[in-house]
Amino acid sequence: MFETLILMLDATMRVSTPLIFAALAGLYSERAGIVDIGLEGKILGSAFAAAAGAAIFGSAWIGLCFGIMASISLAMIHGFACITHRGDHIVSGVAINTIVAGLTVTLSMDWFGMGGQTPTLSGDARFLSITLPFADALADVPVIGLIYSELLSGHNILVYLAFAMVPMTFWVVYKTRFGLRLRAVGENPHAVDTAGISVAFIRYRALIVCGILCGLAGAYLSTAHNAGFLKDMSAGKGYMALAALIFGKWRPVPVLFACLLFGFLDAVAVRMQGVVLPGVGEVPVQAIEVLPYVLTVLLLAGFIGKAVGPKAIGRPYVKERA
Amino acid sequence: MTNNTVPFAIELRDISKRFGAVQANKDICLQVPAGTIHGIIGENGAGKSTLMSIIYGFYEADTGFIEVDGKRVDIRSSQDAIDAGIGMVHQHFMLVENFSVLENVVLGTEGGALLKGGLTAARVELQRLAKEYSLDIDVDAIVEELPVGLQQRVEILKALYRGARILILDEPTGVLTPQEADHLFRILKSLKEQGVTVLLITHKLREIMASTDNISVMRQGEMVAHRETQHTNTEELAELMVGKKVRLTVNKDDAQPSDVFLSAKNLTQFDGQGVKRLKEVSLELRAGEILGIAGVSGNGQSELLNVLSGITPMSEGEIQFAGQTITAKAPKDAAQMRDLKMAHVPEDRHKMGLVTGFEAYEAAVLGYHNSASYNGKILMDHTAMLEECKVRMADWDVRPPNPHLKTANFSGGNQQKIVIAREVEQNPDVLLIGQPTRGVDIGAIENIHEQIVKLRDSGKAILLVSVELDEIMALSDRIIVMFDGAVVGELDAKDADERTLGLMMANAYNKEEQGVSA
């Protein structure tokens, strides 16, 4: 039983990683006042670019750079529409998602001719598991061995990076000048403007950070978690991340736990495949897969209290007196 | 005024600014000696706020320039203004509400990429400022939990922390209680003693007389007078502010007031922040009279209209209307008030009077859209609506008489005619009408005034709110003056003149009378 739990938590970490990257990406963007429904598109775009880059150059790291570049470019398009031209954030985000869904498949058919996939990656073209020191030696120690060797050891570098991003984000948002201005610009951009700081510049920088993190999420999907790009492989992770962001009330640590919860439910869904429960029979896997979404709706509908977002979110800043 | 040894703290030369067709500022010149408190006074819309926005870099002037300490400065952004030593306390505070006082103060001048050092230094500096200017405040308090008076103090501290030597305050007492306002003026005095130059923008005569060294008066975008405070008085300032306008005349007979249609007792209303916007207002409205509510805008007239029409619930008091007693515990909403035959022409026709995206015939039934005459069994009866709209457009001379034109595409006057026609044609007993001719051209003004008088002569009761003194004096039979949410005076229209009303609107009337008798 304990071993089962550890294995499920182990799976949770793997499944949660892209959610954590993407939710933190959303945190930077939304804390700065930019609604980012386009997380999904940025993840997918990055997944494709990373897989394509890795396939061509044979290096997961080069793939990652491509993924991040693609994702930042998409974030800049979003910024150009929402910040510079004061467009509607939702419309721009949805447009990005739609374009990317089509563009990735089209490009991969043209470049690789494999029915919308990229070549299967192997060796250096993927991020491989890292075995932490002494993991093998400790594997046989009861309890600790299982926790250390199974749960903590044996993930790829991006998994560790995702978890490291949480305290990092906390530090940036609450302890640095950039963080202070980021939070201020999402709450009351007029206050930032009258303090002599450019609202647009801060929002663009927030979107660059957002792009980098989404790039990591996408690259993780195609070059670490899987071995190549598949059509629509982001599979709603961007929306899940957005839900986790709201669920965690736009704060790094609660957001982490929201991501872990959603990841855990996903791991349960996989685990429950084909399991026959007494009195119920075989649980349809769809019933479990739908749980995170149902949970989000239920919890957001009132169980966690009001989720009050940044006050100025979604509103273009017009330099005028209130 | 010229003194070559001491340059002015700030000097404006021929500042002009135009927004489309509106000349907001015209050839403004202003000289403010260092270390003085300088008041700028004028009615709403006189261009004071525009001028301050130019000084603080929100807008760029079309022509003219600004000198600070005798040196010409080019202010293109707020940062330029801050660098020039100008600080501003905005009417609507520019604070991040869920930040602490400390975080708000350092925002923009954090002193390094990491917050820690900057915050520690700011804490020390704030303590020094607090001591020097008696601006005590808990620097770790969250701003939204502070009362407005203290929030304003944060704004002042923000400016001082940035090294402001010239402090602009835009309508600083609008949100303050009298006690808080008194405290503010003590703070301003101590700032002045420390050599800070203060520019105080207000439309409240009493405050400006009590706290300033010099006063400049603005009217319709122009600087019309400069006075030393000790050589002027509220009467002169009131006249300068309002100006001598050509008096509108409306042909009307004496009113024949009869039954009381509506009576309000001790109406009180608190806004969302707990500020008392309406203070124990009592009034009676009789059939066949026009009761005018005069006052500088923002002194509770809008709140009064909203409470009477049922849009906002009252906090205390009661209204007797159409045989019903309406109280805070037994409220009636706007639709119920309409059913009792109260019509309302709101002050802001774009926000409350019309849906500008609607076609005229649709806008012409708003609020009465459930009435049987506009509805079939299931669907709305568009033919009936169109027919009626055509008739009304002819009767009220709405141009162009096209019921399918979007309301946004009518001129202000014709939009207003659509709204007034809608309300009046329902044959109400009481008509509440706010700013009936704001943004309306001269020809339409006359027409609207005639219609209002006609309605009165047919035995209806009309409550007119207007910031235009001319309009109040031309139309009203009786005038009530509001100041700071309370009724401060009532007089017969025959006894009203601009001077008396102006003083009453500034709440300076009784004080002056007492001063004469003492």
Explained architecture:
- The complex is a heterodimer of chains A (322) and B (518).
- Chain A is built from 14 helices and four strands.
- Chain A is mostly helical and 322 residues long.
- Chain A has one domain: ABC transporter involved in vitamin B12 uptake, BtuC (Orthogonal Bundle), CATH 1.10.3470.
- In chain A, the strands form two sheets. In chain A, strands 1-2 form a two-stranded antiparallel sheet. Chain A has a two-stranded antiparallel ribbon with strand order 3-4.
- In chain A, α1 (2-31) packs across α11 and α1 (2-31) packs across α12 (252-271).
- By secondary structure, chain B is α/β, with parallel strands linked by helices.
- Chain B folds into two domains: 8-242, 3-Layer(aba) Sandwich (Rossmann fold); 260-351 and 428-517, 3-Layer(aba) Sandwich (Rossmann fold), CATH 3.40.50.
- A six-stranded mixed sheet of chain B has the order 6-7-8-3-9-10, sandwiched between helices. A six-stranded mixed sheet of chain B has the order 16-17-18-13-19-20, with helices on both faces. Chain B has a four-stranded antiparallel sheet with strand order 2-1-4-5, covered by helices on one side.
- In chain B, α15 (442-457) links the parallel β17 and β18 (461-465).
- The longest helix of chain B is centred in the N-terminal third of the chain and has 19 residues, at 115-133.
- Chain B is elongated and about 70 Å long.
- Chains A and B meet through α8 and α9 of A and α2, α3 and α4 of B.
